[in-house]
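go over this record:
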Amino acid sequence: MTNSSHHERSVLLIGNHKNELELWRKTILAQSPLYGVQVAVSAEETERILDKEGFDLVVMDYELPGSSGEDLIAHIHQAKPHIPIIVMTNNDSPELALNVLKAGASDFLPKIGSYEKFLPRTLTTNLQRAMLLENLRESYQRVERSSHDEALLNRMIVNIHSSLDLEEIIDSAARSLSEEFKVTRSIICTVSAPGAAMRINRQVTQPSHDAISERSIIFSRYHDLLLDVGERRPLVIMQDDTFPFARDLAQELQIYSIKSLIMVPLVYRGRLMGLFHLDDCVNQRLWNQAEINLLSRIANQLSIAISQAKLYQIVETQSLSIDKLTDLCSQLNSVVHSTRELTERQESREKMRVKLSTREIEVLRKVALGLSNKEIADQCHITEGTTEVHVSRLRKKLNLTSRAALVRYAYENHLC
């Protein structure tokens, strides 16, 4: 017995007493005519109906002939764990009520007096409780999904930002995307300069499938679309999509056995730097909004990492150039210093030649070597008196007062 009109809630009644079942049905419909009510008269029929249809709530007679009430409750709860089960029984026993609830029932209503009057309120209470529990489950799933996504994003950030080498960053990102999202292919394309063509930089492909060729139009068409439309949004394509862009790529999807794909642009400070592409050749994967948002956040981090790596390359190149220039300047300074020193020596010697005679210079050098007048006289083959005259003249010409000053002067003017 089923209400064939539009139902806001569907209820399954289980029992074998027709009068009771009709009483329950009328009471429920009196509460809300939009309830859909269906009846099962045995455990076997209950299992068959539950396999085919879905219900918001079950009302059952515990004393169903030919079956154990607790076993039937457990079976329904196992098959449909979130459906409230209200158990009706002739036995108003606390022990029975506890066993029924342990088996999986959500409420217990003894058939005492005009018990049917309490049925609508019991239905409403249990439906509201079920809705609250469903909302809690959904909230928990959202929190759990968000936690999972944040953990995945953090892993990707660690992998992407673990290096300043451009090739290492792109390789790590492609491998991580392939592993984290379990896809057939993970491809990263880059643009070397504004206006340049989109090129495959790194491709990770499962062994049982072919890599996508550099000549494929998949990436160039998406690149053109990004430039034409001016919107930097992810693009999802299914094999059977019929919108114009998908039709343009239909042959490519067939060649590479792609059932679904997603491409996400890499943009940093308004500049298009490339894209990454994920596809699935096994399942027609439906990329939901949460996954698309997560991939967009990953793309943002990858764009930053690529930009930092390119900046590091520029700085490193300039640093090498500066080091080379510094080394060259050092060499030039050394040459200049040597030339200046040589010039100063030459000028000093020229000055000495002008002021001092050859014999005086010879005597001055020997004084600088620490020789006595007698030793100088012996080496120069002159008398000791003549040597003393030369030393005296040197002090006068050079305006020096001591023999030590003569020694210092000789060394400063590179005469020894």
Summary: The longest helix spans residues 289-355.
